[in-house]
Amino acid sequence: xxxxxxFLRGLLMGAADIVPGVSGGTMAFIxxxxxxxxxxxxxxxxxxxxLLLAGRVRELWRHVDGAFLLALLAGxxxxxxxLARLISWVLEHHPVPLWAFFFGLILASALVLLQQVGRWTPxxxxxxxxxxxxxxxxxxxxxxxLGGGLAGVFLAGFVAICAMILPGISGxxxxxxxxxxxxxxxxxxxxxxxxxxxxxxxxxxxxxxxSRLLYWLLHRFHAATMALLTxxxxxxLAVVWPWKRALDWVVDSQxxxxxxxxxxxxxxxxxxxxxxxxxxxxxxxxxxxxxxxVWLVHWRWGGARPS
Length: 307
Description:
By secondary structure, this protein is mostly helical. It contains 15 helices and four strands. The chain has helices at residues 3-18, 24-30, 34-42, 46-53, 57-63, 66-93, 95-114, 122-140, 149-164, 171-177, 181-190, 193-220, 222-240, 267-274, 280-301; strands at residues 244-246, 249-251, 257-259, 262-264. The strands form two sheets. Strands 1-4 form a two-stranded antiparallel sheet. A two-stranded antiparallel ribbon has the order 2-3. The chain starts with a helix and ends in a 6-residue tail after the last helix.
């Protein structure tokens, strides 16, 4: 895989991470680098530490797949730095068409990935249903308050990073559900170093533990795990459905109301509730465009073969 291809995948992951409700893990999954990404994260182990302490930098670089991580992180950083303001502006002023684009992208991704499951068995169908049900439960859950002081901060970082590398589930959305989104933003804004350090420690521990679990599952039970992860994508369609009605709100660090619990509605009901045009045809066109983009990526780079 060329560095340019990896960099482009990083661009897609960074763009997805900017949008609340869309996971960078989804982009890694649909562009065929998910398994390699998990393996690279998993390689930060005691062997890597021994190589570092011994000063064997070249061997350490190969051990952690450094060239892959460097190109990917460069793409993610470039995307966030260059597209953050644009996507944030579109999300604020034209959210419905943007969600429609992501809906088409994720729906087409899920359909493509169904082919990688191979022969369907009752167990694999159950995994697909379990993944879809879990993602729907997360998407439609009300917000909760996570207390416990610094222990709660550690747990929030642990859970959020696990969600972030799962396709279909957004880490920022999990923070909203845990009641920690505004708190984390405020801590970053005020440079609360103790809070940030504990949160980062939780995220690092979660990443090390969960990446190993997923890597093991993908190599021991590949088809069933693919069915489960594809189910997550199908379930996440409730999050990116363009027309939604808010059931609950929180106030972010800027004092602005932010919807937390939302349910999908039809375009006609959206028009009645908001008075705004549902832009149905534009949304349909963007959804188709998103689906075609997935087809192009799949045709160009392909993915894992069925098993």
